[in-house]
What does this fold into?
Amino acid sequence: MIQRTINSIGFIGLGIMGRHMAGHILAAGHKLNIYNRSRGNAESLIAKGAVWHDDPGAVAAASDVVITMVGYPADVEQIYLGAGGLIERAGRGSVLIDATTSSPSLAQRIAAAAAEKGVTALDAPVSGGEVGARDAKLAIMVGGDAETCEWVRPILALMGSNVARMGGPGAGQHTKMANQIAIASTMMGVSESLAYAREAGLDLDTVLKVIGTGAASSFLLNNLGPRMTKGDYAAGFYVHHFIKDLGIALDEAKRMGMNLPGLALARQLYDQLASQGHATDGTQALYHLYEGKSRA
Amino acid sequence: MIQRTINSIGFIGLGIMGRHMAGHILAAGHKLNIYNRSRGNAESLIAKGAVWHDDPGAVAAASDVVITMVGYPADVEQIYLGAGGLIERAGRGSVLIDATTSSPSLAQRIAAAAAEKGVTALDAPVSGGEVGARDAKLAIMVGGDAETCEWVRPILALMGSNVARMGGPGAGQHTKMANQIAIASTMMGVSESLAYAREAGLDLDTVLKVIGTGAASSFLLNNLGPRMTKGDYAAGFYVHHFIKDLGIALDEAKRMGMNLPGLALARQLYDQLASQGHATDGTQALYHLYEGKSRA
It folds into this structure.
């Protein structure tokens, strides 16, 4: 059912991540069809030869493989399942790959709807942030048909250094949720640890050095800890996007009958942080919630 | 005030950690005075030349430097401040070093009481577990007089590869609390992440491999995650000792007027785990709390 030649690739969603990812595909010499909600983000790719289309469906109609990297599950649903959307316009045998961090259940619905049209949909969320996207070093967690995953692997490998098929439809998204769940409570632990150390009057650089090599060490402690203590909340990953991810994870956990109190607490704290005007800060701004006392 | 010759060293508390630590001091050729609640644990050291004493005070009377490694703050208080205890019996100019993870406030009280007798007390909790103790690779976080810390540094260096003075009395314990606070919520995150992944039907070894190199990675995910998924709850660090540590951290946080909801939640979950018969399992047994559904 899969067509064996890739003549052109589509890319929809040219935000911070998407622009880098699409750029790698174009740089590898592929014909690239693109669409973005605002055309401004597309200009640099158009200048390098990418072909602009006026809506997502048009990209799908012109491409053998389409990759999407948009914001929210509602956007994904609209683009894939909406009238004139990807599944309606994609050619038989083409492949649609959603790299957005989105709902596993939605990924399953999309895969099923695509299959009815002779189209294969994969979920392939990424981790590694802007640096990973820029350097083509993303981890890409793929859910969906095994044969299709192997077929598109060379394309995914243009954007990521670690492409792992995790199972059937939704398995990529589930893996990304597991990733975000670990991050959620770890970020709480790091924030509370450093806030405690500050209140206790300790030198925070020394604390980071001492606890950063043992059982308490983590990517977040070692990489975001120093930013927290400097009050550097510049976004690597937005608070409002993380809140979206935690909401998806909570919904899925609930659907599976699971109670994840750490995740639920982290979501509450991030909601509180966003309501204090930090929605577009980086996730390390969680530390700010614990700053009250020393600032008073 | 500090006497410049160390003729003999005392060690009190010969549990899993203490036995290894005392062994390194003895192996370095120091005269070693020892005491433990049960004499059984002391026999191997006695066979190698350590001198047994019948109570902690007698160890202090016979030693220039005494190291203690006992279980709970109540034990520390009794041994240091009780009648016939270390401070009462220690000679002027001697140094008492508590390596127990204990209360920062208690460490400050002990240091003050010691100073009144011309004795210097340091708090010097460790991290690195049994392996760190065995291999003399502990991190040792010291609080107390700077000059004294430098004087005993060669002795501490027999047991640890990273000896850091963190500040005045209590600063070592505060640093250890910061360490345990980071661990508490990180352990929740790791447990919930893997429990979610299991419920979602993912292959847990693959999940660990994929999320274990990115932003979700941590010592706990990478080292205890694989034990969780195998149901290996053998103790590296006991649940009941961790509950003690979290209780100290919560008390200190409260005293400083801080609200640490992640820490409070972790303490609740560990209490629940202990009440289910897991007090002498390793801390990674937290994963068990999330196993209900898949076992049902």
